[in-house]
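Case study 2.
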Amino acid sequence: MKIALAPLSPTLSPQERGRCALRSDCGLRKDSLSRREGRERDDTKKSISRSSIIGKVLFFTTFIFITFGTHAQEVTIRGSAPEYAGCVLTFHSADNYISNVEIRLGECTVAADGNFIVRLPCKNVRPVNLHLGIFNVRFLAEPGFEYEVQLPPRTDKTPEEAASAFFEEVPVYMAILSTKDDKKQTVDPEKELNFLITRFDERFEPLH
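Prediction:
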């Protein structure tokens, strides 16, 4: 669509025509500059808004990781067993329930006074076992929990038992003396997971 431009009045002098053209050009430049500044302000606001959102996301992600990640990813096991002083306690868990291949979770050395403590990785409830002489000590660990345990009486394998590929360790449940949950609150012994499983096995063992 063509727009007809009105010719400048023939009564205007060349100087007046130049001033009119100059004023017109200045007006166009001011409009262009105003629109550019408006776009720059909008872009700045959007950039600040995006930065604010990203900052908040990073803050809450870091907060959640620090608050929940550090404690919920491990389990603490402690106890006192003077007769095991100097022994290395190595804790294992099944890699999966099909192959039942054991993986090493961690270990600790029993101090001269019999005290020991170990922290093991634990993202979910998982079975943990400990080979102690003729015993295979087992229990279930919950993430973030702390267990005070009592080891069975020390009964080492005989040289013949240790050398035999057919010797089967005696499976026993770990004696749990006290439990604290992931909020460091003491768990009712009768509601503790290992106690419930032990009671269930004792009740229905005659059916096996």
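The helical segments are 14-72, 159-163, 193-204.
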